[in-house]
Amino acid sequence: MRSKAQRLAEVAARAAEGFVVLELKESYGLGFVAAPGRLVSTLHVVGDEASITAHLSDGSRLDLGAVGGVDHRRDLAVLLSAQLAVAPLLAPPLRLAEEGTTAFTFTLSKDRTRTQWVDVRIAAIQVLSDLLTVYRLDGDLPADLSGAPLVSTRGEALGVLTQAQADDGPVVLAVPHRYLVPLLSSPEQRPLSALTLPRRARRRRMVPQHPVALLDGSSAKGLDHVASVLNGAINVGAPAYNRGDVATCWRLYSGDRRAAGARSPRLPRPDEGAARRPRARPGARRRRVAGVGAARCLRCAADVDREVLSRAGGGRTRRGTKVVEAAQLKAMRRVLIVLAVAAALAAACTTTDRYRGRQAPDGPVLTVLVPGYRGSFLYDDNRRVYLDPAAAFRPGSESLGTCSGGMKPLEPGGPMTKFTIWPYAFNVYDDFMEWGRTHTEGFTAYGYDWRADLKWNGEQLCEFIGQRRANVIAHSMGGLVTMLAIQKCPEKFRAVVFAGVPFRGAPGLFADLFLGASTYQNTALLSPEALWTFPATWQLLPRTDDFFVDEAGQQVALPISRAETWRDWKLPCPQRLQERLSDRAAMPVDFTQAPARSLAVIGRGLPTTVAMRVKEGFFDFKNPARDDGDGTIAAANATPPFPAQTANTTADHLHLLDDPKMRSAIEAFFQ
């Protein structure tokens, strides 16, 4: 029987027959045969070429004189030749490859005398826009790969390699094969002149000229304030100007408050960009590759009137002179502050969702982060619904569920990372995942729909782990998902860290069923109506009905497990009550299976809700009974009901895993 290495070598040998080196006027490029008589490369490699010669794997040469299709937006080009009698690579499945998939590609050896096989891995699937999704690749990759094929271990052509220039250096990407389908099936045939690269229109930089005398005579304090606000306004308006949106930039600076607020542009996400052709490096034999750029938010510079800022920051007041009236200065401050705030809300960045659709990596040891309630991104197709940073800071109208329609169908992404609403940054799991990649073996993360039934999510976690055993780091509700997975597949868990897990429920969520939960400024996403469609919200409540007290703090018998108890209360979705009570009843009070080894991270020192206070037949949500905890989960509820090591921290619930001492304890525990 052939070994895995032998089978892979055979696949690589067959795929190498379709690999082609392109001789260009002043350089060389790469490509591959994707269909009979059709050769694929990237547009920035073959663009603007008047003649192209293909060097085939058998040593023959072939002149290419026709173009079968060009896709400027995705940096693709298809070249034609009736004499190209090479068997194409196999067509891949219609769906995208999964994150973590191992693959390979080809390039030339350093002496350019032979073909070189290069191992790669699909590290992430990045949605750059509605028109383009790419694979981000990891591996020991050489610099010149654009145009080469991305080949699966089964010999499928997964895509076309290209490269992007990010802030931290070049990034290797692959454009999926599905974008090639219309080009390969098109009957179009054009001359090589169709390979013209798009030209950027040269913008005339319209730098505003401000009369410096406008500020003469103002107080030093007023001048300093104006200079500071002007500088802030420039910093938030410059990105719009630098990406070519001059109209929006003008609205921001001219004081059109309505237009700036209602039509503020969405700045590019860190994983967005457009194909561009950079300048060639001096002495380079092959043109430097660019492909799809990775734009960064708030990293642009603007042309500013240095004289105005200099004079405003260091000008002197002439005694007895008052050029700018106090009312004018006050109005100027107000307008500039409003503009700066409006533009800042538009300047929102979100860290890339690196774990969307990701499968567990290969390796002997697997470490899995299981995030908590509201801890994973959710998508409607490729549109991020939870959480888009701009949506977080406006009231909003979109909800994640309705009484009539139920829970909105959404696709889970990876754990929430961090996002920025200038000048504030909110970090959820991003820092911990960075730490996990460097301090734990085989680190990955399991994103899931935190609204859905916890038992179902636990079953999905078992499938995610696969046939190996895993170390798990479970935060908050992720610990309940993990415990339910342990009931189904206990053999797959080596050791588990439970951080702030509500083993005995989270009483504070009871108030959300009546009041809803705000997402920063957004009150629509998690309205009371939406929460009444989430099984998980109800399953997070204590499984017993003993979390109610009277005004004196004495326990009150309130059997909320029975529908008749709710009869006298005004309910957001009364038609959903029975099914939600059934969801809650499906959660076990006690777990029969416990992990072989476990460590519980318990937060202490913050007042935490432990019971709802009943007052005059309803609830005093503003004054619940509180006890020691992490601000969300009481220490008593976070203590496992089975033997486990414990580690205490004063960090709040969201940042339990960010405490350096807890990270050291986790690392030592797994070792």
Report on this structure:
It is a single chain. This protein has 671 residues and is of the alpha+beta class. Helix content is 25%, strand content 25%. It is built from 18 helices and 32 strands. It has an 8-stranded antiparallel beta sheet. Strand 4 and strand 5 (61-64) form a beta hairpin. Helix 4 (220-242) runs antiparallel to helix 5 (246-254), helix 4 packs parallel to helix 8 (326-346) and helix 11 packs across helix 12. The longest helix has 23 residues, at 220-242. It is globular and about 90 Å long.
Which key features would you list for this structure?
6-stranded antiparallel β-barrel; alpha+beta; globular; 25% strand; 18 helices; 671 residues
Helix content: 25-40%
Q: Tell me the number of strands.
A: 32
**Nearest-integer average pLDDT:** 80
- Secondary-structure-based class equals alpha+beta
Instruction: Tell me the strand percentage band.
Output: 25-35%
pLDDT under 50 segments (min length 5)?
256-325, 340-347
Number of DSSP helical runs:
18
State the strand order across the main sheet.
5-4-1-2-3-7-6-14
First-last Cα distance? 37 Å
- The oligomeric status of these chains comes to single chain
Note the main sheet: 8 strands, antiparallel
Rg? 30 Å
Shape: globular
Summarize the structure.
The chain is an alpha+beta fold and 671 residues long. It contains 18 helices and 32 strands. Helix 11 crosses helix 12.
